[in-house]
């Protein structure tokens, strides 16, 4: 069963409202510009040199299988990627490889949908407890996870490579006050002098397919 876009947007709008009222999330930033296919292609020479951090929200999931009581390590208790999401993840990875965008560190939330996104795309992904889905935590726990994510965003990648983080909408909302519009969205950061600053751009998930042509 595939996810329904309208239902998916409604569910995450409710989650966003709950997160905003229940926690002290970061002050909202202005949304970064959304790249077009032409702009993403024009950016390739810079991405090929490395030095960027990509923050991906996991790709599309089956919203008819909600994870009310998820158990880490047991994917049967968690909302899984849909067929669409698995194809999206493969398309992202193919675009990186085909266009010679180097990838070094790959970190993923311990939820299966994030790990699966990372491993389908990049054939690896280190599960990081610090990227646990932020809406399921107490306020002090969220603060700790948010600090951890900020450190990852601020850390410059190894020379000649890019870092990839795959997690959830709530985590990046807590960290910088921006909510990804769709599953599979990516935000692009360029850490300098130990600070990531605001994201440079939003990359919609469907743009990666254009780089595979």
Automatic annotation (TrEMBL):
**Domain of life the protein comes from:** Bacteria
Entry-linked Pfam families: His_Phos_1
- The secretion signal range is 1-25
What InterPro entries is this protein classified in?
His_Pase_superF_clade-1 (IPR013078), His_PPase_superfam (IPR029033)
Gene3D superfamilies to which the protein is assigned, alphabetical: Phosphoglycerate mutase-like (3.40.50.1240)
Q: Which UniProt keywords apply?
A: Signal
Q: Does the keyword Signal apply?
A: yes
User: In the UniProt record, does the keyword Signal occur?
Assistant: yes
Protein name per UniProt: Histidine phosphatase superfamily protein (Branch 1)
Question: Organism classification, top ranks?
Answer: Bacteria, Pseudomonadati, Pseudomonadota, Betaproteobacteria, Nitrosomonadales
